[in-house]
Write a structure and sequence with these properties.
By secondary structure, the chain is mostly helical. The chain folds into 3 domains: about 1-80, no CATH class; about 85-120 and about 295-440, no CATH class; about 150-285, no CATH class. The protein has helices spanning about 10-30, 35-45, 55-70, 85-100, 105-130, 135-160, 180-200, 205-225, 230-240, 250-265, 270-280, 295-305, 315-325, 350-390, 395-410, 420-440. The radius of gyration is 23 Å and the shape is globular. About 45% of the residues are buried. Residues about 1-10, about 330-340 and about 435-468 have low confidence and may be disordered.
Length: about 475
Amino acid sequence: MLTGRSSYRPQDAAIVNRVMVSAVDITARLRAPILVLYAALFVVLLPAGLIPSNIHSILNRSMAALALGVWLFSEDAWRRPIWSTTTSLMLAFLLWSGFSLLWAKDIHTGMTILLTYTLRFLVFLFLVPNLIRNRKELDGLMYVLALAGWVLLLIGAGTILTGGYTFGTRFKVLDENENGPATLALIAMIGVLWHARRSPGSKATLGLIIASIFLLMTMGLVALSGSRGGAISLLIVLLAFCCWRPSRGWGKLGLAALVLAIILTPAIFKATSDRFAASTDNYSSDTALGGREPLWKAGLQLIGDHPLSGVGIGNSGFEIRASVVRVRAIDDQDDAPVGNPMGKATSIHNPIVVIGAETGLPGLLLYLGVIITAFWSFLRDYQKCRNLGAQNFIPYFALVTSVFLGYMASWIKGGGMESSHTFFLLLSLLLIPSALAVRGFEHAKGPNTETVTQELNYPRPLPVSEWR
């Protein structure tokens, strides 16, 4: 949500401008671009509807621009920036997407989507790896994730306690889609569990209790939302937790709580179980993929018609209508922006198909390359940390890997997920270990003594032995 398609009002811009002027003054005094990055990430993670949509949209874009601007005027900008293969591929994807506007029918929508991708690139794939460079800054990022997660869960709990929910229906948090809160809560759980493990001495027990409450509330939120994708993602995350020693306790706790909840309080699973049951009922109009099959077929037809060029970034939702009509009837309600000559935009609900339809095979290969190289870099850094004896950093790999696997299980069938802030946030979490390693993790014991970087003029980082 770094950008949105909401209507623009001058008075909203004036409010945001005053906020931005104050923010620039404060950050200039503090000379801390990392604080602006934290603020930008927190704003983008707030649930839709908490802030009026017009102001939220402008604030998201403004905070992203401010974060980049403050970084450019900071001392960090004068050092050699961290630039990965993933970053290069994403930049190439942006350039190709911009080129695809030459044959796009709706240039305005295409430019809006391209701006979204550009802001995602700058904040998540460039600023995060360049500013999250030591233990303290990583802890700060995890605090932001945890705080955003608690805001979401507390708003949800408040809605239920004030009578804003009827059991058996799909639970919504403010203006969020029913599937959105489950995704955000799972990602925020990384921050909560990270700090629970790192809580010192006397605070360790309190940290474990707080994290356990968060995990159980997340499970309740997923159950009430009726999101089949969210339920599948949660189950995968819990099972993946069990495969890692640092997170095994959380996996066992979650699975045990799930079994007990099914036995003792089956009512909270009614919305989800009804949707799963409907997808297997021969007399129901619902399907296992929620009726997405015709959309995917139409999207593949669109790729077949434009295999190399695509239809232009941001235009698949309009171009697909003719293909979908041949597969199934679509209602005539217009949910496109007022005055859009292209009419209704139909979401394909498959990020891979969307990218292929909009940018052709060249864009699709670049986009898939971004995902593959980010995950490969993550695996390589995991092996490096093991070789260096960085046992205190292994929990990070356990948490991020588990959530990433669960997230991707529902990401593949989500509408608009190809440019989602949660998707790019996870990519940035995959890249963070390489940014930390560049600054020279050291270990003084054993044959694998290594200083990864000796030539870059960065401040000396914390050695691995101090990651406690």
